[in-house]
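Input set for joint prediction.
Command: fold jointly, output C-alpha cells.
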Amino acid sequence: MNCSHCGDKCDNSNIKIEEHIFCCNGCKTVFELLNENNLCEYYDSETTPGIKIRNEVYYDKFNILDEPEVSRKFILYEDTKITKVKFNVPQVHCSSCIWLLENLNRLNPSINNSEVNFQKKEILITFEKTLSVKEVAILIASIGYEPVLTSEVQVKSLAHKTLVIKIGIAGFCFGNIMLFAFPEYLGLEEKDFSKFFGWLSMFLALPVMFYAGVDYLKSALKGFRQRFINMDIPIALGMITLFVRSAYEVISETGAGYFDSLSGLIFFLLVGKWFQSKTYDTLSFERNYKSYFPLSVGVKKEGEITSVKLENLKVGDEVVIRNQEIIPADSILQEGNASVDYSFVTGESDYISVNKGEKLYAGGKHNGKEITVILTHKPDNSYLTQLWNSNNLSKEDKTITKLADTVSHYFTIIIISITLLTFLFWFFVDASLIWNTVTSVLIIACPCALAMTIPFTLGNAMRFLGRKSIYVKNIQVIENLSKINHVVFDKTGTLTQASEKKIYYTPVKLDESEINIQVKSLVTHSSHPLSVALNKHLKSVPALEIDDFKEIPNKGVEGLLAKNEIFIGKYDLSQYSNQAFQGSTVAVVINEELVGFYTLTSTFREGIKSLVQKLLQKEYKISLISGDSEADDIKIKEELGIENRQFNCAPLDKLNFVKAKQKEGDTIVMIGDGLNDAGALMESSVGIAVSDDVNYFVPACDTIMSGEALQDLEKLLLYSKISIRIIWAGFTLSFIYNVIGLSFAVSGSLSPIVAAVLMPLSSITIVAFTSLTTRYYFKKLFKI
Amino acid sequence: MTMIFMLTGISLILAIGFLSAFLWAVKSGQFDDDYTPSVRILFEDSVKKVKTNNKTIKGNKNHKQ
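C-alpha cells >
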C-alpha cells in the first residue's frame, strides 16, 4: 500500500480516512484540508502528487515576516486594498502542484489570485489586506509548499528582456533595409528611387546603430580606455566605418551604402549574444552560507522568545533551536541534549551527540527536542562562514585567459596592419582610391563570424549538457573545463551515496530471518539515518505494533514486542572486530542478549569505478580529499586505485589543498557536495557540485550535476575539449571568408552587393557548422 | 510613380505596427514563462464557476495577463 498523499510505501499504517491510507499525520492533515475545500482534484491528474510533510513545520519561524523590513523582500506591489507577493517554492514538481497553488482562493477567499511560474518555481499571490504576508506563507506551508525564507537576493531578468527587444528592433530594421536595397542590386536606373531608398535605409539604420548596437561601441570604448584589446574593438571599428561610409554615400548621392550589411551584422551578433545568455533560472550557482541559514532565529529574552534577524544576533544571545533547525553560529549548549547532523559541514552523515557545556558549530542541523544555546561568535564570524569572509573568494581572480581575448588581440593587430598597408599602397599608386579601399578593409574585416563562433559553439554545448543533467553556469566554464588536468573528489555524498548503504548481517545467536520482523517494527518509528537505511533494507518485511517505543539519543531505539525487550543500536562489539568490518555497526539485542549485528558500509555511486579507470587512462591526476576518517582508505585504494588520498580534512584544509596544487601549476576541477567543500569549489578552476536533487541546496559552484551524471564526468571533460577544437575550426572557416573578402577590399572592388552576400553567408555557415558539429559529437559521446 | 513612394510608406507604417506589438508583448511579460500556461489551459474550472461567479470573471482576466 502507498500513501494516498505522497505515494510513499506505508504497509500496515493505521492512519486512515475511509479507504485512503497515509504514511504519517502530516499527509493526512493536508488530505483532510483539501477534502474539506473540495480540492481533491489535486489527486486527479497525478496519482500521488503530494509532498511528504517530513517534519512538523514550525510556524513560529514565519514570525519574522511580521517585520516590514523582512516582508518587503517578498512584496512586489502593495496598496491600501491588496498586496502582491512572490515566494520561491522549490517543492513545485508537477501539474497538480500548479493546479493546487493556483486554486488557493478556495482555501482562503481573501486570496484574489495566485499564479505559478513552474520553471522558476515561483508563486505570485495577490491577496486582500485582511491577510498578512505571514498568514499567506503559513497557508502555503500548511499544504506542503513551504516558501523559502532565506535572504537570497532575487535577481531580475531585466537584461535578458532588453536584449530580446534589441534583437526585435535590429531584425525589423535589417529586414526592411534589405528590401529597400534590393532594387539597387538589380540595377535601378531611376535616380529618385535610389535617393529615396537610401535615405529611408539610413533612417532605419539609426536605431540599429545607436540603440541595438550601442553596447558594442561602449564596450570597445571601455577596452580602448583600459588599453585592453577585446573582440568588440574590431567590431566597433567595422560598425563605425560602415555607418560613416554609407551615410557619406547617401548624402553625396554617390552610392547606396552598406546599411543592409550594417544592420545584418548587428542583428546576427545580438542573436549570438542571446544564444549564450541562456541560464538555468531555477538553479542558483551563487549560493553562500547565508542562503542555507534561516532568516531569523528565536532568541530568549527575559523568559520570552522573540524572532531576531540573523545579522542582529550578538555574542551571548540565548538562542532556541528546534528539531531540524540549523545552528546559526558557533555556540555552547546551555539546555537539553543536542544531536547534531554536521553533514553539510563535514560530509559525515551520522549524528553527533553534544552534552551540556560543549561546543556546537554553525551549520549543523539539530535533531531532537528543543535546545538552548549561547552564542560565542556572530554568524558571519563562525568557523565555517569565515571561509567566505576572510578570503573574499571570487571567480574573477582566476588566471585562465579567455580564448576570445587572445584571439581578438592578434586579430586586431593583423587587421590594423593590413589597413595601414592598404593605405600606404594606394597612397603611392592612386590616392583617389584610399578612402574606398581603407573603409572596405575595415568593413570586411569586422569579425562577425569570428565573434559568433564562441557563443554558438559553447551555447550549444551548454544546452546539450543540460539534457544530461549537467548544468553549466555559463559558457566560460566549458572553456575552463577543457584545460583541466587534475580531478579532485570529495568522498561522502560524491563518490559514495549517503542514502544507499550496503548492509550485511552477522549472526551471533539468531539468523536474520528470525529477527527481521522485530528490527523492522522498531526502525520504522525512527528517523535516524541508520534506522532509515535498515528500514529500506527490510522493506518487504511486515512491521508489528510496538509498545513503549523509546529513542535514546546517540544510543539507539528500544521497545517491547510480544513481551520481549528489544534494543537496536550501539553495543560493545569489540570481541567481533576480528571479523573485519568497516563502516557503522548496529547491534540487535533481545532481552539484554546480543543476537547479531548489522554492518552498514557506504557504496560507491554507479559507474564510479569505470570513471576513475578511464580518467587514469587519460592521464588525469586524481586526488581524494575527505572530511571522514580513514575507515574506507583501503577500499578506495584497492577498488578505485586513487593514489593521492587525504582524510580528516577540515573545510579549510580542502581549500588549501586546492590552492597548493594550483600553485604547482595544476588546473583543478573539484567535485563536491556539501558546505564543507564550498571553499574548495570556489577556489578551483571549475567547481562541480553533485546533488541528487538539483533544486535543493547546493553550495556556490560553476556546475551543478545530478548524481547519476557523475559517471559521465570523463565525457564532459572530453566534450569540452572537442568544443574548443570546434571553435578553432570555426575560426579557420571565418578566416577563409575574411581572406576572400579582403582580396576584394584591398583592390577597391568591394561593392555593396558583395558585402551584403558575404557577411550573412559567413555568419550562417558558422552557425550551421558549429551547431551541427556540437550536436554530432554530443550524440557520439553520450550515445543518444 | 508616386504610388510606389506612398505604398512604401504605408508598408513601413504597417510593419512598425507589428514591431510595436512585439515590443509590447515582450514588455508585458508574455515570454517570461513558456511552460506553465500550457499546463494551466488543461485544468477544469467547472467547480470554480459553481462556487463564485464573479471570481471566475476575475480569474479569467488574470489568466490573460
